[in-house]
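Morning. Coffee machine broken again, so started the prediction first thing and wrote up yesterday's gels while waiting. Chain of 120 residues, entered below exactly as on the submission form.
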Amino acid sequence: MKQLKPAPIKPTIKYSDLDKVDIRVGTMEKVDNIEKSEKLAKLIVDFGDRKSNIIVGMKKERDSPKEIEGMLALFVVNLEPRKMRYGLSEGMLFDIGYADKIIPVLAVPEKPIPNGARAG
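Came back before lunch.
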């Protein structure tokens, strides 16, 4: 495993700041290739009470983005929808490693849990 020199810890925040971020479990029902993009794919994610489109930059990180179809993962669900070149993204996949310039891995529950369950 690659050694990592951890980045400095960000400034201290209040617990009430953390309460503003809504992280939930969702099932990645479908992964659609965005053919005109070298790195983007569109996820259709089931959160139990709704389905959301989330555009992610993962094509260069995986042999096939389709390999994550059907998997549970963590998502930030209360971000402002973001209009992107290839559609509207209604959240953010919560992954580990991207900020440290290593190939990201998914943040996933250790066992099955209902869609929409909150982290924290």
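The chain has one helix and nine strands. Going to sketch it on the whiteboard this afternoon.
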